[in-house]
Amino acid sequence: MRRWGMLRFATLVAALVLAIGAGFWFLGNAVKSEFRGPDPVTVAQASLQGLREQNRLSTFAARYVAVVTSKQNRLGMTAEKTLIMPGMVRYEVDLAKLQQKSLSWDAANKRLTIVLPPLEVVGPDVDLDGIREFNPGGLLMRFTDVEKQLDAANRKSGQQELIRQARAPMPVKLAKDATRRAIERSFAMPLKAAGLDAKVAVFFPDEQPTEDWDRTRAPEDVLANKW
C-alpha cells in the first residue's frame, strides 16, 4: 500500500514538472514572438487582400489624337474624307487576379516580390466634341451613300490608331512605372508601419526578375514551413 502511494506521488510530481515545462515553453515562444515582431508574410497577405478588394487599379491615363483618311472610288470618281479624333486611354491592372502565388518573400534579403497581372489598355474614350472632319466635297458624296461608308471607315480606323499610339513603348513604360510605384507603396507602408525593414520589388509578367527570383519563397510555403 505504501509502495502504491509512493508511485502515485511520483506520477503527480512528473505530471507537475511536465506542466511547468510546457508553461515555460509557451511563455518562451510568446516572448520570442513579441521580440521578433510582426510576421512580414502576414502583413503582406493583409495588403494583398486589401488590393484585391479594389478590383481595378488605374494610375495613368493619356490623351491621343488620331488623324485618318479614307477614300472611295466609284464611277471613275474619288471621294475622300479626313477625320481628326481625340481620345483618352486609361492603363489599368485587374487587382482581382492577384493571388497568393503572386507574392514571394525572400527572408535572407528581406525583400517582398510581387508579380502583377498584365497591364491593360482601356478605351479609347473618344472626345466627340473635339472631332473634326475635312473633305473636298464632290459629286460622289452628293449623289451616293459613299460618305456614310467613309465616316464608318474613319471611325474604326481612328479608334485603332488611338489604341496603337497608346500601346507604344514610351507610354506603356510610363504607365507601368506609375502602377509599380503605387503597388510598392501599398505594400511598403504597412510593412514600415509594423516596424519591418523590407524592400518591395514589383514586376509585370513580361519583365525579367532579378537573379534571386528562383530562391524566394511564396507565402503559402512560408506558412507551411517548407521550400
Automatic annotation (TrEMBL):
Protein name per its UniProtKB record: DUF4230 domain-containing protein
Record organism: Sphingomonas agrestis
Annotated InterPro entries: DUF4230
